[in-house]
Predict the 3D structure of the following.
Amino acid sequence: MVALAAMENLLVERSGSGVVTVTMSQPERKNAINMPMWDGMLAVFREVEERSEDRVIVLTGAGDVFSAGADLGGEPDGRHQLALMKHFNDVGMALHNLSVPTLARVNGLAVGAALNLALSCDLVVAADTARFAEIFIKRGLSLDLGGSWLLPRLVGMHRAKELALFGDMIDAAEAERIGLVNRVVPADELDAATAEWAERLAQGPPLAQAMTKRMLNNAFSVSLAEALDAEAMAQSVNVASEDTREAIKAFFEKREPVFTGR
């Protein structure tokens, strides 16, 4: 990895293969997300969307914690709470709308808004030592950062209500069992497992990945007929692309394709 930028409590690194790793780093506060970190993530997500060389984002936390959520003890911002929430929501939407694949590397505690950031990613890989909680209710708060939209889609309505209304902590095994995460691995294998998936995603066809993501994100709000129309349009774009021609050529030449996003 080559460091791109070290913002306040946020480290951004880029690999030569197009993997962008965004690390929340405020270890003395369990990587709680303060305002500079929110600002930094929004800037990075928007920047990645504009850079064709960036092929996948990995979101993680420093040390043995993903994040304890929003930094409730940070410096007062001065803005009205509704304005602050809109800013936080902009971060969540920027992450959700990224055309490149996104992967959460959950290395430990992931609660509240940080958990919902992880769940906004396309894939979640967790260490077996990770713990998860929609802790809002225990702070006298409701779900935010997309939790009310994400949870029912991932685990079903009844399970979502259980997680949200009790706010209990669950371990990695339970998170995997109910579909909250994709994969759980021993803590000492987390880096390798994350790198494997990130590299595979980075080598994929960007156009096809972006259109596949969009269609799946829209799956619960369109009819079957609308989904079929979207698939037809996507395939028409794919078939006319250099990447599809490269994939077919590589198939006949019995080699791995090299995708460029064109």
Observations:
- Residues 206-252 form one domain.
- The radius of gyration is 19 Å.
